[in-house]
Amino acid sequence: MRIVSGIQPTGNLHLGNYLGAIRNWVKMQDEVTASGGQCLYFLADLHAISMPHTPAELAANTREMVAALVACGIDPDRSILFNQAQVPQHAELQWLLNGTARMGWLNRMTQWKDKAGKNREGASVALFTYPVLQAADVLLYQATHVPVGEDQKQHLELARDIAQKFNNDFCPEDAPLFTLPDAFIPPEAARIMSLRDGSSKMSKSDPSDMSRINMTDSADTIMQKVKKAKTDPEPLPAEAAGLEGRAEARNLVAIYAVMAGTTVDAVLAEFGGEGFGKFKPALGELLVETLAPINARFLQLREDKAGLDAILRKGAEKARALAVPTLDKTYEALGLVRG
Ligand code: TYM
Description:
Layout: E1 2-7, H1 15-32, E2 38-43, H2 45-48, H3 55-72, E3 80-83, H4 89-98, H5 103-107, H6 110-116, H7 125-139, E4 145-147, H8 153-170, E5 182-184, H9 219-228, H10 247-260, H11 264-271, H12 276-301, H13 305-333
Parallel strand pairs: 1-2, 2-3, 4-5
Helix pairs in contact: 3-12, 4-7, 4-13, 7-8, 9-12, 10-11, 10-12
The site of ligand 1 has 24 residues, from strand 1, helix 1 and helix 7.
């Protein structure tokens, strides 16, 4: 098994990232590396320049995100932890795959439509070709599994389409070059929603900080955000079916279930019939209990800039070594002469 996944170093790591992706990165690291597989986790800094950004902030956020991932349990000795900018093979493979990806495929991407909005003419070319870089990220390493949240599913399907078409167009039938990667999406935490609006996902780009729990929030802030989270006046139902049409309530119960390592039904068996006045403090405490040690480690790690840079340098060196053979074969398959 080879596990590959990435995160953009824009802003803070939040609870949606953690429950939807990072927790699985850590679990897979523990399981897969013990049985001889490999895990590659990277900061998608090349993706981050597809939107307007401040260079100094990107550099600072990149180091902070390394500290956050290590604080969450990514071990740079067992997983390969790096940033794309130090592994130029990602950008090279993207260019080679641009010949295979179709405009129509990219035009259908919901993230492109959402982020470009009505101003497509003013969007960057990078935002449009973003999913091809994402395909390159995983195909470069022959990834078998890609742990992500639900919002990345469509991009992963595109990576499979690109791999399939490239294999069909340029490889002998019995020797396909690219492995088709499978998305690994945790059913119970596929889509953690905003605390202010149960119909939109928890996101770093939401202007309201009250909409998300940041992994760096203090205990007081977490308790405050949970207390102020939007809910409805009804008590909690006794069974999951009773959450139908109650998006905010469902989101909070789902977060509780995932954090406690139990099911929505088990949470409702305990809190069914209770109002949010009782449930919210319990959820807040559960969050603080899990996030406080992560936060403490993060605050310590972020001070050691040289140490964080060394982690990325070492990771990039290992990633480059794994990337080169597939990249070489891609050049060759396309008939590109390199001496
Ligand atoms: P990014 O940086 O937006 O998010 C990182 C990971 O967190 C997941 N996630 C969520 N999961 C559940 N609920 C939420 N509210 C939530 N918000 C975010 C995302 O699904 C993701 O798994 N394009 C990617 C980064 C990327 C990548 C890749 C991922 C670049 N190349 C190759 C996998 C493989 C992104 O912007 O994720």
